[in-house]
């Protein structure tokens, strides 16, 4: 039974029981409808509804969205609750999200526990509230708050919900409080559906539309939600519900909702693949981070925020000071943004040790080196760690590019070394590439997954190659961008094209942020082994010669004259014209669509090779890497989900056209050819 009910002294208790999050599937809807009829037959004074496991309900069961909706449909169930002569009280603990919040809003009264959260996050799944949320919420909290909550999809806490008029009270024990509610007082509360809709406010709606067009560019659901809310203001309640339902059902089967559901479930499925479940990471109490630079400090802070004791090792006093300053900046920023309070900041500091003595690592269960990207430095640090750490402690390197197999080869026990590739800022970015070297043990990898879970990261297993999964795709993306730039465009035309695709910023603005010197160092490292037949674009090297390293030198691909803005730099555009002249290239004026096609096809082709080689385990993993590490638009489902939406055969045909231009750079991945030949999607493909 996913809905249980019993009564005591004419009070009904209805409990939703579908662990772990009380998702509202068909059985729950059926049970709730039966509960309404039961309460009315029993002529109860009230019904108190709650959820098991400290959760009210996380919303409709998104696993049902790919199939036709099954009766009873949630709107009808909630209308039965709202219109019943037996008043329902929602006793909310944990979360009441989506359909869970809609159940609560159909109740006559809502009481939340202090730590509980309530919201309508449907737009994050590419849909809109589909069970009365767009009609009931404005009636309860007014137009402005309802528009903000529904179109941005962000849940709110109990106090905010109470202040907004969404709930009636915040109580430590909501069920007890619901039991104590005075019957007369309860009887005086108007059913939600009988509330008047707020007045139409054209200015407010216009401002909201402009904001969504800027902040949620390309996404259908937020703007559609705004339209439905607005239309509902001038419709009778049940007509408003009908138009909401039509919009919900139409969005639910659309490409953006499918893409967002794909990422939602892929992210959860990535937590720990079968061989690595049940890791020992819960036993990790003490972690060591070697290197207190930007990355090391971010990693150390992430570990502190997860409650671990952290020892940061540096080479000397100056390094220690730098580490202290970097950690201090992160703590200050977290305090300033209200992410932690002073007590939490003090607690973090109490568990942090800074030292130049490797002996301090003697009790650690894991050590992560985040030192300078130089193989000799890595060898030295890992050797010193191996000498002092307990034999069962795991060693990890945060290297972005260097060969983890080469690092392991120098260790007495290479099985204990893995890569833990964090992304800057390491305490914020969700992606964590867990790099499996040839000799990495399952136990070491499992600890990596366990650590990812404790840090709230999205873990993706990667094999060893230059750039693993994400940086290897990024390198190909930038190479394609530089080629388009060299052959006819400008950095700003390329960036504009990719922002139009859905990136928050294009590859050139992004590189100005991280610094052009990082990619330059990698090009120098790769030079001895570079394919002499592969076209090389020299523009980025010219930028280094000109001292244009990006924001940190106030000039990179753009100029940064101060004040935060960026300015197109004609000197940079001229570099391409000059280099093209030397190379006797007649330049082409690429359209935005041609730029997007080339850059996205380049990434898809590279990703297919990565999957073919087994560096990535699945297309879904590549989707997680591109979305959580590199800003690929989430509402497109990630790089490979998007590729499947284009169709592998189409991709192969387009690549073959480009291969006529440059057969080396555009060599079609064998995986794409085999999928096209077999009529297989990339989602179904597995490494050879
Ligand atoms: N449907 C189906 N499964 C769900 C689910 C959902 N809505 N939410 C979570 N799960 C599964 C999840 O896949 C995982 O499964 C397990 O529960 C634990 O989740 C009509 C149409 C509630 C904050 O968008 O935000 O209502 O991997 O790992 O970190 O208008 O889950 O264990 O097999 O995330 O503690 C709107 C989505 C739906 C909320 C808990 N609701 N969920 O986080 O656990 S649309 C949402 C969450 C809707 C109505 C519309 C989070 C959480 P497995 P978890 P968590």
In brief:
The chain folds into 3 domains: 251 residues, 2-enoyl-CoA Hydratase, Chain A, domain 1; 189 residues, Rossmann fold; 215 residues, N-(1-d-carboxylethyl)-l-norvaline Dehydrogenase, domain 2 (Orthogonal Bundle). The chain is 49% helix and 11% strand.
What would your notes on this structure say?
This protein is an alpha/beta fold and 688 residues long. The model has no long low-confidence stretch (mean pLDDT 95). The strands form 4 sheets. It has an 8-stranded mixed β-sheet, sandwiched between helices. Strands 1-2-3-4-6-9 form a 6-stranded mixed β-sheet, sandwiched between helices. It is built from 29 helices and 19 strands. α2 (74-83) runs parallel beside α3 (99-106), α12 packs across α26 (619-630) and α20 crosses α25 (592-612). It has 3 domains: 3-253, 2-enoyl-CoA Hydratase, Chain A, domain 1 (Alpha-Beta Complex); 274-462, 3-Layer(aba) Sandwich (Rossmann fold), CATH 3.40.50; 470-684, N-(1-d-carboxylethyl)-l-norvaline Dehydrogenase, domain 2, CATH 1.10.1040. β3 (46-51), α2 and β4 (88-92) form a beta-alpha-beta unit. Bound molecules: (2S,3S)-3-hydroxy-2-methylbutanoyl-COA (T1G).
């Amino acid at each position: 039974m996913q809905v249980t009910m019993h009564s005591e002294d004419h009070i009904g208790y209805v409990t939703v029981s579908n662990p772990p999050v009380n998702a509202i599937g068909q059985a729950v809807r059926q049970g709730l409808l039966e509960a309404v009829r039961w309460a009315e037959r029993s002529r109860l004074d009230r019904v108190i509804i709650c959820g098991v496991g400290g959760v009210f309900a996380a919303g409709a069961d998104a696993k049902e969205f790919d199939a036709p909706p099954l009766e009873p449909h949630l709107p009808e169930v909630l209308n039965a609750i709202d219109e019943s002569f037996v008043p329902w009280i929602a006793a909310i603990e944990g979360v009441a999200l989506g359909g869970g919040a809609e159940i609560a809003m159909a109740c006559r009264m809502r009481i939340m526990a202090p730590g509980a959260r309530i919201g309508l996050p449907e737009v994050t799944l590419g849909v809109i509230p589909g069970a009365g949320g767009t009609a009931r919420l404005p009636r309860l909290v007014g137009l402005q708050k309802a528009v903000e909550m529904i179109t941005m999809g962000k849940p709110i806490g109990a106090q905010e919900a109470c202040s907004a008029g969404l709930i009636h009270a915040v109580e430590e024990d909501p069920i007890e409080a619901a039991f104590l509610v005075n019957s007369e007082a309860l009887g005086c509360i108007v059913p939600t559906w009988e509330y008047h809709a707020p007045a139409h406010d054209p200015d407010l709606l216009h401002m909201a539309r402009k904001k969504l067009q800027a902040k949620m560019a390309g996404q259908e659901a937020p703007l559609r939600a705004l339209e439905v809310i607005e239309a509902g203001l001038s419709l009778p309640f049940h007509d408003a519900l009908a138009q909401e339902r039509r919009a919900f059902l139409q969005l639910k089967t659309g490409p953006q909702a499918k893409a967002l559901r794909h990422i939602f479930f892929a992210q959860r499925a990535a937590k720990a693949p079968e061989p690595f479940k049940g890791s020992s990471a819960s036993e990790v109490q003490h972690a060591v981070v070697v290197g207190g630079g930007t990355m090391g400090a971010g990693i150390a802070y992430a570990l502190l925020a997860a409650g671990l004791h952290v020892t940061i090792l540096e080479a000397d006093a100056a390094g220690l000071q730098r580490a202290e300053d970097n950690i201090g900046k992160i703590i200050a920023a977290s305090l300033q943004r209200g992410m932690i309070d002073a007590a939490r900041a003090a607690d973090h500091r109490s568990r942090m040790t800074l030292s130049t003595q490797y002996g301090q690592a003697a009790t650690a269960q894991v050590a992560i080196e985040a030192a300078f990207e130089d193989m000799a430095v890595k060898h030295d640090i890992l050797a010193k760690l191996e000498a002092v750490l307990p034999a069962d402690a795991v060693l990890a390197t945060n290297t972005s590019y260097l060969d983890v197999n080469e690092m392991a080869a120098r260790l007495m026990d290479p099985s204990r070394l893995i890569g833990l590739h964090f992304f800057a800022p390491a305490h914020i970015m969700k992606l964590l590439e867990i790099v499996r070297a040839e000799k990495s043990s399952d136990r070491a990898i499992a600890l990596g997954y366990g650590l990812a879970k404790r840090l709230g990261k999205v873990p993706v297993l990667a094999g060893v190659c230059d750039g693993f999964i994400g940086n290897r795709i990024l390198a190909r993306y930038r190479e394609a961008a530089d080629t388009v730039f060299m052959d006819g465009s400008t950095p700003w035309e390329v960036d504009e094209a990719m922002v139009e695709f859905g990136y928050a910023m294009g590859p050139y603005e992004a590189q100005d942020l991280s610094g052009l010197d990082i990619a330059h160092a990698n090009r120098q490292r790769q030079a001895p082994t570079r394919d002499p037949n592969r076209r090389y674009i020299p523009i980025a090297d010219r930028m280094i010669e000109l001292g244009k390293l990006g924001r940190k030198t106030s000039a990179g691909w753009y100029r940064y004259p101060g004040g935060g803005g960026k300015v197109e730099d004609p000197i940079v555009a001229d570099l391409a014209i000059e280099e093209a002249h030397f190379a006797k290239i007649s330049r082409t004026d690429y359209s935005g669509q041609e730029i997007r096609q080339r850059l996205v096809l380049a990434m898809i082709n590279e990703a297919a090779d990565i999957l073919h080689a087994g560096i990535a385990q699945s297309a879904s993993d590549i989707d997680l890497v591109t979305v959580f590490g590199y800003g690929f638009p989430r509402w497109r489902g990630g790089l490979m989900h998007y590729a499947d939406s284009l169709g592998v055969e189409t991709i192969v045909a387009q690549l073959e056209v480009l291969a006529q231009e440059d057969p080396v750079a555009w060599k079609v991945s064998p995986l794409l050819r085999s999928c096209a030949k077999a009529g297989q999607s990339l989602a179904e493909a597995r490494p050879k």
